[in-house]
Amino acid sequence: MYSLFSLFRTVSTHYLRKRWDRAALVVASIALGVAMLVSTQLLNACLDAATAESVAPGADTADLVVSSNRRVQLDLLTKLREVPGVHSAQPLIVERVLLPNFNNRTAILIGLDASGGAIADKNPFEAQLTVTNPSAWLSGRGVVVGKDLADILAADGKPARPLRIRAGGKDQEVIPGGVVELHGKAAKLGGFLLVMDVRQAAKLLNQDGICERIDLYVSPGANREQVKQAAQAAIGDRAVVRTPEVAGQASREVIGGIRIFFTLCGIGAMVVGLFLVYISLAVSVAERRHDIGVLRSMGATRPQIAGLFTGESVLLGLVGALLGVPLGIGLARLTFRLVQTEMQQLFMTANQPLSLTWQTFLLAVISGVATAWLAALVPALQAASDEPADAVRRTPSGAGRFFRYLQAIASATMIGAGFSFV
Question: Helix axis angle, 20-55 relative to 244-254, nearest 10°?
């Protein structure tokens, strides 16, 4: 009797060294499938974050969000701040503007609740302001600029000269009065920023008295659901009060089709890898049928023969999966670099980190090993089903017809499932 380990050590290692090209094909098939799976998962995560932060930037810091198709009237602030349980109500505008003096480069205009250049303590961007030109606020056109823009406007990083911007369909001048830095997730907006009072920003954008949304912060100990109902009753049908989770779900639905496309690409690559591995292992079984008969004649059991081939496949699948993970990260970064310009045009926070999480890593490794195991299942059972005398004499396998039918049914099932997904 043989142990499975001794069979693997004496039979499999010798064959894998002899047929290293076929082993390399199995590893490459799994690695490419895993790489596609990892890259699509990373791109999906990047797309989710960019969409959520662009449709409703900073909304995840609030307890409730008041919105109405990006046009919420600022006079609702008074009613909302009087609602019991509302600690703070902060209006917000986030819009792109152009800088004509800098080749029409895009800057992000942020309107916050500010008075005299002092940004409210409660704001979704963790903004920190340094006043550099107090006289700018006397003109009524004062604005604080991001650090990167400030360094370009003035050598000392403290600009004071008027800056021309194109907003609301016309050129207008603003006067820098300070420098602002954003922290947390908002730092992804970059340093080309213009931050001013929300009412002033609304006038620049030709939407006087209208903001994009109002963030509500609930008082400690207050019930969020009760505050939500009270706020909705206070403003009636002029806007909708929602939780940030619901608002985020709505933004994710916008890119649902793209996410499904990416997911199907990853699954499709794994299916292609499965068939390539299956073909390689089926040829391997056919080549080693005589050796299988000898092993069976010498006492090797059917489970040991089946375990021999599945063990080989799982080992090669594990190697391929581990190689496919870094390959997938590189593929995702290359794809992101190719579409970065388009991403910046579509999203305000396009520069998302493509970081691999443990969940994605485990998903990739398990998927690679499972694919190799499934691909080896039919060839391994076919090898174990042969009678020792038939295998040694090289007579046709009696189980061949059954496995051909099984393969045909599995192929038809996968093709049908593919059309169903599409």
Answer: 120
